[in-house]
Amino acid sequence: MNLKHILMAAGAVVFTACGQTTPTNNPVPVKPPTTPMTSFPLQRTEAEWRKILTPEQYRVLRESGTDRPFAGQYWNTKEPGIYRCAACGEVLFKSDDKFDSGCGWPSFSQIAAQGKVVARVDNSLGMRRTEVLCANCGSHLGHVFDDGPAPTGLRYCINSTSIHFGDTNAPAAKPVEKK
């Protein structure tokens, strides 16, 4: 293995650690689906997603991109409210379940309700993680790890670009077509 490969592997370990000093970052045990999950209740063509989402939202939500740590809009938000999918408006997380994991991304100990997200194995970047997707539209949200606080022990590490924060009484924000 040459120096380039060693440095890439070391960078992947640091990236996965998400700023934790002693993380386990073991993926949440997930039974891979027996059939590929290609169907979600909200169906749009990629051309329709490109028309609705900004280029950055499309990169993160539809191409499984990632925000830079400590740069996203919601990593340090502490106000009460709910977090919805930025692509479809589905309620995903509640501020009561948000915590400071020190990783630079919004982190939640649980989802707003069962069935709001779908988990699948992600073997990208030379590591095994558990990706979370919006169960309504299939958009990439981030990853879930088993080093979160009690009672769940989970840390949903979510991209700010993937979510929209709002008041608990606010209606679902519909993505605005870009001009």
Give structural notes.
The protein is an alpha+beta fold. The protein has helices spanning 3-17, 46-52, 55-62, and strands at residues 82-85, 91-94, 98-99, 107-108, 117-122, 129-134, 140-145, 155-158, 163-166. It contains three helices and nine strands, in the order αααβββββββββ. A six-stranded antiparallel β-sheet has the order 3-4-8-7-6-5. A three-stranded antiparallel β-sheet has the order 2-1-9, with no helix packed on it. The chain has one domain (3-166): Peptide methionine sulfoxide reductase (Metal Binding Protein, Guanine Nucleotide Exchange Factor, Chain A, Beta Complex), CATH 2.170.150.
Q: What is the CATH superfamily classification?
A: Peptide methionine sulfoxide reductase
Multimeric state of these chains?
A: single chain
Radius of gyration: 16 Å
Note the beta-strand portion: 15-25%
Distance between the termini: 48 Å
Q: Given the C-alpha coordinates, what overall shape results?
A: globular
- The CATH topology is given as Metal Binding Protein, Guanine Nucleotide Exchange Factor, Chain A
- In round numbers, the mean pLDDT is 81
CATH class type: Mainly Beta
Number of domains: 1
Describe the strand arrangement of the main beta sheet, using strand numbers: 3-4-8-7-6-5
Q: Determine the fraction of residues in helical runs and give it as a percent range.
A: 10-25%
Provide the descriptors you would attach to this structure in a database record.
globular; three-stranded antiparallel β-sheet; 3 helices; six-stranded antiparallel β-sheet; single chain; alpha+beta; 9 strands
